[in-house]
């Protein structure tokens, strides 16, 4: 039987550890959830002089923040023109401007604070496996080049040279992007937050939130209580019943990953010789990168249930060999999985269902950059109450109709899309 979260990722933990602590009495901001969003907001709020407490139900990095693929991608699933159509000219432009700089936020923080996080910033490739996918890349390239972004199209020969895999019609290179050790980043964000004065409590769940006058009263499963002027619920794919309707507004999926043994030197020039992380354009996303110690890491969607055996990762091994047949004799040494959340419109959603109760959910594969970059904005809003500092519009919390049946529908769609992908060459 394979273990449940966090699984067996290959990521190194940094040497430094955050200081744990609980602030008795009253705080300015309670953060529920210790992922990128929660810890970034806590760090920036503490720097603004707010008294901040973070409470995380698990250990650091045991959710999606520690078991993801480490790709740091700016932008969103929707391109700038689509954002303006969906949200209106002003709100769409504001979100497009913000999303353009999300990778900058991560890499600038690593550099300015000297964080112990392995990283590289030589771009990210969206690989187009069909002509229609290539035309979508052409449209994306046009929109971002008009905004001055450092991006370009790749033809069939160029993408084969950079990736080492055959069969792609072309692709799109976004040089603003890169990759990090995601587990190291979450530990270093926690260290920054606690060093700045935030309290951090791990392996303890907030089980109840009640409004009492102008304050929020939080209770935990260990019997603690805390008063807070404002609360940020940063639980995303791990949202439960704490906020009615939040979990039901999201579709969660399992992201499965495998890692090989370190590649022999004879294969390093054949497997991702350009060093960029890659996302495939297939309906069922496949993404891959080289790790700092020279392994190939491949990720993609897995079963809706928790894994039962190695066979639940077999589809990723098949994808790996389809892309890189030379790896047939290279062992797969690590297998792990985590939960991610998407929204029906593929946009991040910001809600404030009651005064002083804030939440952002829905990463759509952009979580590291998006949620880390949101930290300063959420902190500024907690300090000032001025919604103009928020790059996202505040929207009502709307549960998805028939949400209890969503897993069945998603599983059916995944199976159907995987069949369609297998028929396309």
Automatic annotation (TrEMBL):
Domain FAD dependent oxidoreductase: 28-379
InterPro entries reported in the protein's UniProt record: FAD-dep_OxRdtase, FAD/NAD-bd_sf
Annotated GO CC locations: cytoplasm
Pfam families with a match to the protein in the record: DAO
Keyword terms of this UniProt record: Oxidoreductase
Keyword Lipid metabolism on entry: no
Tagged with keyword Repeat: no
GO molecular function, one term: oxidoreductase activity
Protein's UniProt name: FAD-binding oxidoreductase
């Amino acid at each position: 039987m394979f273990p449940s979260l966090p699984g067996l990722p290959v990521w190194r933990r940094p040497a430094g550890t955050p200081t744990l602590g609980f602030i008795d009495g009253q705080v300015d901001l309670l953060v529920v959830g210790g992922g990128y969003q929660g810890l970034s907001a806590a760090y920036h709020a503490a720097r603004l002089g707010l008294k901040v407490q973070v409470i995380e139900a698990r250990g650091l990095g045991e959710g999606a923040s520690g078991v993801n693929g480490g790709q740091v991608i700016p932008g969103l699933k929707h391109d700038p023109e689509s954002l303006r159509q969906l949200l209106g000219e002003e709100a769409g432009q504001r979100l497009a401007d913000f999303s353009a700089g999300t990778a900058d936020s991560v890499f600038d923080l690593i550099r300015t604070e000297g964080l112990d996080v392995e990283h590289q910033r030589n771009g990210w490739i969206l690989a187009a496996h069909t002509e229609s996918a290539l035309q979508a890349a052409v449209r994306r390239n046009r929109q971002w080049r008009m905004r001055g972004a450092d991006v370009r199209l790749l033809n069939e020969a160029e993408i084969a040279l950079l990736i080492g895999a055959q069969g792609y019609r072309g692709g799109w290179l976004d040089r603003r992007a890169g990759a990090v050790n995601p587990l190291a980043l979450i530990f270093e964000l926690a260290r920054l937050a606690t060093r700045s004065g935030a309290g951090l409590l791990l392996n303890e769940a907030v089980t109840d939130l009640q409004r009492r006058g102008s304050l929020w009263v939080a209770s935990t499963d260990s019997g603690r209580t805390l008063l807070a002027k404002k609360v940020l619920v940063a639980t995303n794919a791990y949202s439960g019943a704490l906020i009615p309707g939040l979990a039901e507004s999201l579709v969660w999926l399992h992201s499965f990953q495998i890692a090989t043994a370190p590649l022999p030197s004879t294969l390093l020039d054949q497997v991702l010789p350009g060093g960029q992380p890659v996302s495939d354009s297939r309906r069922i996303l496949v993404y891959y990168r080289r790790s700092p110690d020279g392994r190939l890491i491949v990720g993609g969607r897995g079963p809706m249930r928790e894994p039962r055996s190695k066979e639940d990762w077999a589809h990723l091994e098949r994808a790996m060999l389809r892309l890189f047949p030379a790896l047939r004799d290279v062992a797969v040494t690590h297998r792990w999985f985590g939960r991610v959340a998407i929204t029906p419109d593929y946009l991040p959603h910001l809600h404030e269902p009651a005064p002083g109760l804030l939440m952002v959910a829905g990463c759509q594969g952009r979580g590291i950059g998006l949620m880390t970059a949101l930290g300063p904005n959420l902190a500024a809003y907690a300090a000032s109450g001025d919604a103009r500092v928020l790059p996202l519009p505040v929207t009502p919390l709307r549960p998805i109709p028939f949400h209890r049946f969503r897993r069945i529908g998603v599983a059916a769609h995944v199976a159907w899309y995987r069949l369609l992908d297998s028929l396309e060459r």
